Records
---
Amino acid sequence: DGGITQSPKYLFRKEGQNVTLSCEQNLNHDAMYWYRQDPGQGLRLIYYSQIVNDFQKGDIAEGYSVSREKKESFPLTVTSAQKNPTAFYLCASSISPIGGEANVLTFGAGSRLTVL
Amino acid sequence: QQQVKQSPQSLIVQKGGISIINCAYENTAFDYFPWYQQFPGKGPALLIAIRPDVSEKKEGRFTISFNKSAKQFSLHIMDSQPGDSATYFCAATPGFGDPFGNEKLTFGTGTRLTIIP
């Protein structure tokens, strides 16, 4: 079955540590995205990538970094510079950033990060 | 102009009733409108979507109504069930081939729906 795999599902981090969240897709989608969701809140875009080796900042990119070396993979690093990193992180992908149905997102199951 | 405004923020409906969630937009380039359903601790999943060339689309108990002139669209859940309790997000994106089509999906702020017995 095609889909998006996020790991780990739960992650605990001590203050000052960097952590990396994994996102892998086997949908052959060109575009990938990272969103942050806080309790009872909506979806805030962190970073997105429309093509391999290219990515763009979203609305809340500060304290985060990404890479897109392979079409299938879009890992997110939460750095120590992120002041309030405890949240639910969602990875998503879309067929291609050309509009219409091609922009519709498929989401992973999410990763919950807790800073101790 | 990129915003999608969603209301209400939360909604409580009795089992068997009709749940209605409303969204409004300003960007006339928006041409495709998906709705997502998210259960606690899970990722959002595509529920139903509509293009503005139709005024209504129905899939089972879920119906999208679209008013192009008012730039508004809504999700109706008929015969609401406790299993429908979730957070619902509307979204919008420019159409295929639109000069702005490479812009990302724009989400509403979400509606937390609770169906009570």
---
Amino acid sequence: DAGITQSPRHKVTETGTPVTLRCHQTENHRYMYWYRQDPGHGLRLIHYSYGVKDTDKGEVSDGYSVSRSKTEDFLLTLESATSSQTSVYFCAISESRLAGEGDTQYFGPGTRLTVL
Amino acid sequence: KQEVTQIPAALSVPEGENLVLNCSFTDSAIYNLQWFRQDPGKGLTSLLLIQSSQREQTSGRLNASLDKSSGRSTLYIAASQPGDSATYLCAVSGAGGTSYGKLTFGQGTILTVHP
């Protein structure tokens, strides 16, 4: 299994509070991703990073920010949590390879976030 | 906007059957396609990755095919076992530039294999 950990694994918070989720990898992979998984919507990309301090938005980025100051850590912040952000959040990593070789994404165990 | 559809949404089969899961996508400009497995309450496990230039990939009892021009992929599971019970997800990756690595997922097929 790829060395990916997410913390915390479970969190309950109240509307309006800031929340930061952490993804840590030991694989030294260049690309890191944050997804959310919701019934009826499946998995959707929130933000991704293609290197230290290089990030970009995904499909559902409103209300979220990210930071990557080290290769191994990718943080997802909800500046002011809302009930619509109750979800399971997954981090993923992939390694850039030569063009044409494809690139597998490996997923972390997930963080279950409940916003009351 | 890329859309990925998986059929059927759920499938229940007796142990030992061979089965096929289907995935279709609307934009054929993909870099690769991945099949994942997800057990309840767990993260995703990558099963197979097919590059856009390939037609199929095999791993053990699993075989995945890709017809990029028609926007279809199938996952074939031979001699199914109760341990194969899980949700199977199909995802396509954008083709290069700012789309690189961005996966668009289907809703998944929930597979139950009963003894």
